[in-house]
Amino acid sequence: MEFDHILIRYGEMAIKGKNRKYFERKLQNQLIKKLSKFDRTRVKKRKDRMYVLLNGEDPHTVMEECKKVFGIHSLSFAVKTDKEEQLIKDAALFALLEDPTVKTFKVSSRRADKSFPIPSQDLNYKVGGHILANTEGVTVDVHNPDVELKIEVRNDAAYITSRDIPGAGGLPVGTSGKSLLMLSGGIDSPVAGYLTMKRGVQIEAVHFHSPPYTSERAKQKVLDLAKGLSSYGHNIVVHVVPFTELQQKIHREMPEGYGMTIMRRMMMRISERIAQKREILSLTTGESLGQVASQTMESMNAINEVTNYPIIRPLVAMDKLDIIEISRKIETYKISTLPYEDCCTIFVPKAPKTKPTRENASYYESSVSFEEDIEKAVALTEMIEVSAEQKAEDLFEDLL
Ligand code: ATP
Ligand code: MG
Q: Is the pTM of the predicted complex or chain greater than 0.90?
């Protein structure tokens, strides 16, 4: 026996009233795209749920892909059988054994086809008895079972579903507009990107690169992070900004204590211009209060002065340990902690101002013209599109 489809439930989306159809269509499209690597899977919609028909594809491999699609509340493996008592019993036992750690269960039957001779309650007992007779150490618990096996007897067949497996949650990517993620090689910004995508936002990324102070490897690391994020929804365009000249100029001409603040302000200005060009309406950063010198309230205030774009900061109130936990879960942690240098660490002053002010930053900046440098950096920005299908090694090999 084998599972032949996966049942998909979408919680939050279901309450979206008028927009519901739109969300469902986006979710269905995301699923179809995600599963396009399998030749035989099909995604079907029916009432408040969707089904992936496996047509012989490996259920567990397909499940792993479905678990990455935002907008899904929970999933279950399911098996379809003819409406015969023995077949239903065997299927239910099979569905229970899908998770070998299960200790307690409950059977819930629904008989949509009233011509089926066994009433629901009787079917529950019969199937439950069959499971008890064929397992060891498994008992019934009708109040708080590890697994609720659901049996639906419909006109065409009987459907048996296994335990609920948690989905990625959130909203389908593409339902909440677009944001430009400022992506460094660190731990935080990929997590910020993930959380933004989870709310249905499509992202592009911008990365500030300072060769030769930062190596090709450091850039590759960022492309690999973007690639990791792209597995949660869509190909990601990464804008790689040549930042060396501006950084050198800041280093040369600005007071050391304000180097960091002014560098961040330049990043914001450039990011805003790229966003404008790409018709993107917001920026996203991995800033989190109190982590480093650039992330004090004063610093945020001074940096934010240069743009009136909305800035999404999903991590602003999160603890570092919680951020790390997410980065492990989404598998960006390993890449983020590779040792390649970051453009910001290179020119970091020995004693950055932790309490910069807008007035001082503007005053220092006004003594030198940066406009041409900003324009030039935007003009020379390289656009690279990454997709989840590219292997990390392939990306690396291009450089060797
Ligand atoms: P991260 O772990 O994301 O690098 P961080 O804790 O190191 O963050 P900062 O160095 O203060 O914090 O950076 C704050 C935010 O600024 C980053 O999360 C990112 O959004 C943005 N940023 C920093 N450096 C770069 C860069 N080289 N290119 C693009 N964005 C950057
Ligand atoms: Mg960093």
A: no
